[in-house]
Amino acid sequence: MLRVDAHRFDVDSALAHYAEHGYARLGVLLDEEGLKALRERADELMLGRVTYPGLFFQLDAPTGRYEDAPLGLGWQGPSLNYRKLEKLELDPRFRAWLENPLFERIARARIPDDIVIYRAILFHKGEAGGSNLPWHQDGGRLWGITQEPELQIWTALDDAPADGGCLEVVPGSHRGGLVTPLGGVIPPDRVADADAEIRRVLLPAQAGEVVLLHNHLWHRSGPSRTGQRRRAFSVCYMSERIRCVRKKKAPRVFTPVFRHGSGGSAPGGSEPPK
């Protein structure tokens, strides 16, 4: 699916920008065939034409307010109004993309241990525009793990122009660490104190474009006002030494992807029947 040579791509420059600013744009890396395959599979999953036990679904809020998105309902029948699908490592097409050799180079440059994923997730804004996702950080006690992960790789599956639900970031904000121990949404008073609205940078993206994001970087996305869907696939990579510490349910087991001395990644499985 890669449009570039994974071994010749300039990873060092991207990682230097990522270290300083908390993000780095890698350009369009997913080819047309890969885009078609992942878009098709995203819709098949939302419509129930392909299923996996344990896949997580969250419907979008009909109001467009992030706070109104229903929690804990899971699958609610065939719909193209799901805002989030998680555990996409279960699907061979998404698994193949998250295990591509360029992503492995990038992850190994940041993570010295064997590597697992915290999550592989589709974020979706439908034709109606989707929800407004406020300034937030991806970490803290909400994530329920022993160490803060740092590396997320985000891939646009559709064009995400400035008015089409693109990513917005506050460059360098990751260097301040977590705003609250809980993590997640940043309190409005802290947003105002940091002049986030003045400092923000929009990251409009073409379909197939890839962006590195630090987990503690302040980021958000507004609704799409173009009438076009916006699908994006995000993967959080971390050390296999990190453990789940949640108490209410059984601790999560994280999927291994890149192991030293194993000759590559764990197998991703075969295509499911339609």
Molecular structure report:
It is a single chain. With 274 residues, the chain is of the alpha+beta class. The protein has one domain: Jelly Rolls (Sandwich), CATH 2.60.120.620. Helices cover 19% and strands 25% of the residues. It has six helices and 13 strands. 39% of the residues are buried. About 3% of the residues have low confidence.
CATH topology: Jelly Rolls
At CATH level 2, the architecture is Sandwich
Structural class: alpha+beta
- SSE ordering: HEHEEHHEEEEEHHEEEEE
Low-confidence stretches: 263-270
Question: How many strands?
Answer: 13
**Largest sheet, strands/sense/barrel:** 8 strands, antiparallel
The pLDDT mean sits at 92
Overall shape: it is globular
Can you identify the CATH class? Mainly Beta
Instruction: Look at the structure and name the CATH superfamily.
Output: q2cbj1_9rhob like domain
Radius of gyration: 18 Å
- Terminal CA distance reads 22 Å
Strand content: 15-25%
Give the % helix: 10-25%
How many domain units?
A: 1
| Total of helices | 6
Secondary-structure blueprint:
Blueprint (H helix, E strand, L loop, with lengths): L10 H11 L1 E6 L3 H15 L9 E4 L22 E5 L5 H7 L2 H10 L4 E11 L7 E5 L13 E6 L10 E3 L14 E2 L2 H6 L2 H4 L1 E3 L5 E6 L4 E3 L8 E10 L15 E4 L16
Antiparallel strand pairs: 1-10, 2-3, 3-4, 4-12, 4-13, 5-8, 5-11, 6-10, 6-12, 7-9, 7-11
Could you provide a short overview of the structure?
With 274 residues, the chain is of the alpha+beta class. Helices cover 19% and strands 25% of the residues.
Summarize this structure as a short list of keywords or feature phrases.
25% strand; five-stranded antiparallel sheet; 274 residues; Jelly Rolls; alpha+beta
